[in-house]
Amino acid sequence: MLDLLHTTKTHDETRQGEAVELAPTGKADGRKLYIESYGCQMNFSDSEIVASILIDEGFETTKDYKEADVVFINTCSIRENAEQRVRKRLKEFEFVKSKKPGLIVGVLGCMAERLKAKFLEEEKLVDVVVGPDAYRDLPNLINKVEDGNKAVNVLLSREETYADISPVRLNSNGVSAFISIMRGCDNMCSFCVVPFTRGRERSRDAVSIVKEAQDLFNAGYREVTLLGQNVDSYKYTANVAEGQEPLPTVNFANLLELVAQVSPELRIRFSTSHPKDITDEVLHIMAKYENICNYIHLPVQSGNSRVLDIMNRTYDREWYMERVDAIRRIIPGCAISTDVITGFCTETEEEHAETLSMMDYVKYDFAYMFAYSERPGTLAAKRFEDDIPEEVKKRRLTEVVDKQQIHSLERMSQHVGKVHKVLIEGFSKRSDQDYCGRNDQNAMVVFPVDARYKVGDYVNVLGENCTSATLIGKIVD
Ligand code: SAH
Ligand code: SF4
Ligand code: F3S
């Protein structure tokens, strides 16, 4: 799952569409739960909450859906192909269910929220449909299904943050973990389905976030990634009893500082920053703490101001460039990655060329790149015609991808010949003779195993060689 954050993936193969199976755990003797996640890290993080809720009910988790009593798919709606993948997967479960009629099949997450009870009509094998704010109701919904009913809960909430639920870190490497700091989104970018599937933005209690970071550190974790659709608008004010002095509001810069102070040995990352909201205060806190990683994911979407305007991103080309300049000024050497959409409604060739020139301006370390996919119910679907032919969208996407390939290689090459502090995350995918981990700027580094160091240790690695996605080196003392 961590690979989703740093491997070059393009086109249809994106971070919004990986499946991760959970490793076995639990109190045993109970029914078995299999859960598979698609979409962004928020969904993966939610699956850990779902598992936690059901383990408390006596469930145990399994990696093998064939032995499961309950199969859940935590779904994503961000692009049409994300939904198609889920439909395909459901077809495969149809076969499993035909062999095991008592099997409960549930659809969770964004697609559940988008389609609601319609899901039950469209996919006959589905027994239960649960939106992202209704997971506490799962035990009750499962009971209903066991009594022979179908069950749906897609109520969105203005308060739910699952702050008190400790996620079970089931598929973890024991070193890095995600902490959800807020839910929902209030931005209404015109192309985006998230405000509809995730509801209103709300921030989680800062104390519970810091406690979760501390607990993870105590359990041996050395890196946390704070998650939200727009982390820069994090804002939490604790309730106090009547007559008491109100407590100060915690903004994202304050929260970053609080988490950074858990331990200098705990690395902090975060995602996603919104160009309209990222403040100099946040950049200064990043510069002040060595353990807050010098890496910012700052989705641009388009390099053209007119397109940004109809996307409802609420910044323009100049604003975005100024924010990039501020990052470069305040945090020299900070890596920047982005998301790009090609072929948004009415985008001209000249406007597309401005996306390419923006890429030249920033020279992103990394990018997630997509052809525009119209989503039902979004502002863009209502207001604009999806008028760019598929082959034009794809050709523009190829141009963006090709350019990014050059920039990724150029950025990675700059790490060669330098020594990097790397947190060992595990063995490399290719060989157990090599360790892998990331440097401060989120570049993946691969280097030979050295028996003196183990997973979870920090080591100094000299970069000797690279591809566009990986830095290859050796440990130096
Ligand atoms: N909250 C984040 C993004 C979440 S969705 C942000 O504001 O940046 C992740 C990415 O998916 C978006 O940044 C966008 O590039 C892409 N995306 C969202 N909706 C899309 C659509 N309808 N078609 C193509 N790509 C889309
Ligand atoms: Fe979607 Fe925009 Fe919210 Fe990101 S900020 S989740 S792109 S509406
Ligand atoms: Fe997908 Fe929902 Fe995340 S639509 S990208 S899983 S918030």
Could you explain how this protein is built, in words?
By secondary structure, the protein is of the alpha/beta class. The chain folds into three domains: 146 residues, 3-Layer(aba) Sandwich (Rossmann fold), CATH 3.40.50; 238 residues, pyruvate-formate lyase- activating enzyme (Alpha-Beta Horseshoe), CATH 3.80.30.20; 57 residues, Nucleic acid-binding proteins (OB fold (Dihydrolipoamide Acetyltransferase, E2P), Beta Barrel), CATH 2.40.50. It is 34% helix and 21% strand. The protein is built from 15 helices and 22 strands. Strands 1-3-2-4-5-6-7 form a seven-stranded mixed sheet, with helices on both faces. The protein has a five-stranded mixed barrel with strand order 18-19-20-22-21. A three-stranded parallel sheet has the order 8-11-14, sandwiched between helices. α9 runs parallel beside α10. The N terminus is likely disordered. S-adenosyl-L-homocysteine (SAH) binds next to β16.
Give me some keywords for this one:
single chain; 477 residues; alpha/beta; Rossmann fold; pyruvate-formate lyase- activating enzyme; OB fold (Dihydrolipoamide Acetyltransferase, E2P); 3 domains; 7-stranded mixed β-sheet; 5-stranded mixed β-barrel; 34% helix; disordered N terminus; binds S-adenosyl-L-homocysteine; binds iron/sulfur cluster; binds FE3-S4 cluster; 4Fe-4S
